[in-house]
Amino acid sequence: MKIYKYKNYEEVSKAAAGFVIREIIKKPDLILGLATGTSPVGLYEHLIKAYDNFIISFKDVRTFNLDEYVGIPKEHPQSYYSFMHQYLFDHIDIKPENINIPSNDEKNMKKLAAEYDAKMLGKQRDLQILGIGKNAHIGFNEPGSELGNQTFIVKLDEQTRIENSRFFNSLEEVPSYAITMGIRNIMFSKKILLIASGKSKAEAIYKTVYGEIDESVPASILQLHPNVTIIVDEEAANLLKMKSTQLSF
Ligand code: F6R
Predict the structure, then answer these.
(1) How far apart are CA 7 and CA 58, in angstroms?
(2) How far is the CA of 136 from the centre of ligand 1 (A)?
(3) pLDDT at 246
(4) Tally of CB atoms within 10 A around 133
């Protein structure tokens, strides 16, 4: 694991964007795994700037999102379909047919999960971007989810619903279920970039790096991945007691 510590969210976003930009320059037809939530918004802003400045193009990039809520239509302003269009896709030259987000038509959930796995088959992600929950979830692989899962339907932790209620009018509106790419799919990516900011993530980051590998801390499985980069701000790195700005092992 390589861990880089930066001052704050903005610096994390810039550094993470630099990482992704380099990957797209090296491989213009990159297969990129995407996350939603607050963590990658700044990173996406920098990617859009790089696109606007003709540094990168997304015309041959293919993307696979980690997850989507179940129980709200994809047109809902808080769906991850809407999120991705608002914060990234509507501002770049990605081809609609190269965008993949798990479908959330409630009636056929199991079938849709299998279909998402089938879509990913043979398209190993070159790079997977991850945020992390306070409970150390990655994707919506909540504590206790099997580490060998492929795409599946997950009941969201109450803590996750409470955290994400900041985007909705009330807690009641937050869906209770989501469709998420399982840990097995995340681990199948060639490279993983995890970003985290703020003191609320410090414990999750500590357990991810130094904790036992256990289903109760889903992100701890990343210790077994051969190519993980973690970019954190000072607050999220607080418990790591990093003496310098970089830690590798
Ligand atoms: C989002 C996702 C989640 C978030 C995590 C952190 O697609 O899969 O794992 O990355 O909940 O969310 P934020 O960044 O909002 O703190």
Answers:
(1) 29
(2) 10
(3) 83
(4) 25
